[in-house]
Automatic annotation (TrEMBL):
Domain named EamA: residues: 13-142, 158-293
The species this protein was found in: Chitinophaga agri
Name by which UniProt lists this protein: EamA family transporter
Localization in the cell: Membrane
Pfam families: EamA (PF00892)
Family: Belongs to the EamA transporter family.
InterPro entries: AA-Vitamin_Transporters, EamA_dom, EmrE-like
Coiled coil: none
Entry GO terms, CC: membrane
Statement: the UniProt record of this protein carries the keyword Transmembrane: yes
Topology of this chain in the membrane: Multi-pass membrane protein
Secreted in keyword set: no
Length: 304
């Protein structure tokens, strides 16, 4: 019987994922004040991916096969190249806390795309109820038909973010069905693939992006270093350890906590507005996500 993980270590890594991943939204917001989103993502994952590959090859001592390399490249394109970079694009134009709240609803994509293309497993009534509640919360928050003219950000990034979340989901659902390299090496290769893709997109869509590097401030560099070392390296390492040692029910709580952390930091540090409607929508969306998670877990328990 495997040894029970140390409780102190368990909660240390869990709180790291809570705080670090919840704070990366504000980090991206600050960093993209100067550097365009795709160029920022390219440099972020170029450095983080290089470090991760070096650590992986040194500790795992396994070179990937051609098939494993291509699998990691595909997943990196979907998760990092498209999924994460579109989040950076969204926070550039929208409040970081609201973007985090939208991303919190990603179980909708997992459930829908898994049902349509992978497991063909029909969602439970509880899951469908959670989806409807979550979507109602998002509609309350971003209702385009509202007479409220206080919104000071565009809504078009929502479409881009939705596409990015769909790609993130497809990439994540593909991982168990692909031959992947060892975990650390795989993560590094995914980051490097995402970095290459972001460099290409930046060269086409972000005019004079490289000239912004001449205007870097201490604030921008600090946010960038935080994203690389805390968000990409410490955050991933903590999450990776938790996937192997934490109960799934406990690990899943990060999806509920991250948007709360992001909303609070966006308000406290980023001076983003936090209205009663935003708080109400946050509670509704998180409630829907909890129901989705519980409904999915109920199906898994019944299959055991």
């Amino acid at each position: 019987m495997p040894n029970k993980p140390d409780t102190t270590k368990l909660w240390t890594f869990l709180f790291a994922v809570y705080i670090i991943w919840g704070s990366t939204y504000l980090g991206m917001k600050i960093a993209t004040e100067v550097v365009p989103p795709f160029l920022l993502s390219a440099f972020r994952f170029l450095v983080a991916g290089t470090i991760m590959v070096c650590i992986g090859w040194r500790s795992e001592k396994q070179l990937p096969t051609r098939k494993q390399f291509l699998s990691a490249a595909f997943v990196g394109l979907m998760l990092i190249g498209i999924g994460n970079s579109t989040t950076a694009l969204a926070v550039h134009y929208m409040p970081s806390g609201l973007v985090a709240l939208i991303v919190a609803a990603i179980p909708v994509w997992f459930i829908g795309l898994d049902w349509a293309f992978f497991s063909k497993q029909r969602p439970t009534l509880m899951t469908v109820t959670g989806i409807l509640i979550g979507l109602a919360g998002l509609f309350l928050l971003f209702n385009p038909f509202s007479a409220d003219h206080s919104r000071d950000y565009p809504l078009w990034p929502l479409v881009v973010l939705a596409a990015g979340m769909a790609c993130w989901t497809l990439g994540s659902l593909s991982v168990p069905r692909l031959s992947m390299p060892a975990p650390m090496t795989s993560a590094g290769l995914q980051m490097l693939t995402g970095a290459v893709f972001c460099f290409l997109v930046s060269s086409v869509t972000e005019d004079d992006a490289w000239s912004t590097l001449h205007h870097l401030s201490t604030r921008t560099i600090s946010a960038y270093l935080y994203l690389v070392f805390m968000g990409s390296l410490v955050g991933f390492t903590s999450y990776s350890w938790l996937t192997r040692n934490a109960p799934p029910r406990l690990l899943s709580t990060y999806a509920y906590v991250n948007p709360v952390v992001a909303l609070f930091l966006g308000w406290a540090i980023g001076h983003e507005s936090l209205s009663a409607r935003t708080l109400t929508a946050c509670a509704i969306v998180i409630g829907g996500v909890i129901l989705m998670t519980l409904g999915k877990r109920k199906v898994q328990d019944n299959k055991k």
